[in-house]
Amino acid sequence: MIPPGAAKFIFGDSEAQCNRLLTLVRQGRKTATCAALEDFEKAGKDLPIVGLQEVVMNWDGTPALVIETTSVKVVRFCDVDESFARAEGEDEKLKVWQFNHQEYLQRNGGFDPEMMIVCQRFRFVRNLQRSFIRSVFSQFLPQSRTEFSDNSEAGFL
Questions:
Q1: Which residue of 78, 109, 134, 148 pairs with 152 in a disulfide if CB–CB is 3.0 to 4.6 A?
Q2: Phi, psi at residue 53, to the nearest 5°?
């Protein structure tokens, strides 16, 4: 179920990156994300607030999952700490996170070590992609309808 009026966004700037980041969220390894403050300002978008539920989309624009914001800080890029970098789930070391995010920011509007970054922590609420859910639980599902006893019905998926 998609929260009514939920904001929607896509992780990354390529299909491969989007898929990788969605997988990290589903695995519980990615619990944070960031974006340039300037991007919010240019788009006229409000910053996320604690308790906000957002739908993260697949690259093709279909709903993938729901996250809920648990904290938001606006800091200079150069002041992002290792704890936040690790929470992003992509890199174990702050220096690697800085390098990769500098490249990303340069590709998407520009980079300055003093630029303001919106650092959002979140919790994974719900997976909206049925194929992923089915792949996780397929080992527990009967292979055909005939495997159910007489009048029983599958109450899930």
A1: 148
A2: -100, 130
What is the pLDDT confidence band of residue 4, given thresholds at 50, 70 and 90?
confident
Amino acid occupying residue 76: R
Distance of alpha carbon 104 from alpha carbon 111, whole angstroms: 9
CATH number at residue 42: 3.10.400.10
69 occurs within a structural domain = yes
Tokens of 67: 């996250």
Question: Domain for residue 1, yes or no?
Answer: no
Rounded distance between C-alpha atoms, residue 65 and residue 61, angstroms? 12
Q: What is residue 28's DSSP assignment? A: T
Bridge partners for 65 per DSSP: 56, 127
Provide the percentage of residues in the chain whose pLDDT is more than 90: 76
- Where does 60-127 show beta strands of DSSP type E? 63-76, 116-127
Identify the H or E element spanning 10.
strand 7-10
Rg (CA), the chain: 18
As a whole number of angstroms, the distance between CA 133 and CA 155 comes to 14
Residue 152 located in a structural domain: no
pTM reported for the whole predicted model:
0.80
| Number of domains the chain is built from | 1
